[in-house]
Amino acid sequence: MRSLLVVLVALLVAGCGDTIINVPTQPSSATATGTTTPAVVKHTIQFRVLGNATSARVRYATPTDGLAQVVTSLPYFNTFTITGDSLFLSLDAMPLSFATSVSYPFMSVQIVVDNTVFREASSQDFLSSPLSVSGQWRQ
Description:
The chain has 139 residues and is mostly beta strands. It has one helix and eight strands. Strand 6 and strand 7 form a beta hairpin.
């Protein structure tokens, strides 16, 4: 029995060959074991029209509405979110009427992206043409 055990141990030792250890000389290339999707970043865009006009015509462009026009009282706010990193934005407004007691008219239009003013224009007279702002926003 003892000789059988000695023979088995000898066979196991003989079966083990040289151990080869490969030591890399430079970093290996990064290979993804699983695909990761980048986080989706949403941006909030707000159109603002402020002033002391009693009504105004507001035109704006959004990815969902396209070019839209509304006749509204002021202040006017329109907020939407996007997931892209670039978008052309435009906003214009024209006052339609002022109260009879208004001596110092004013109007302001703003495009705000992520709580930061992207474009702004203002006027302090009785406008007969639209007050406009536009631009290509990029992240």
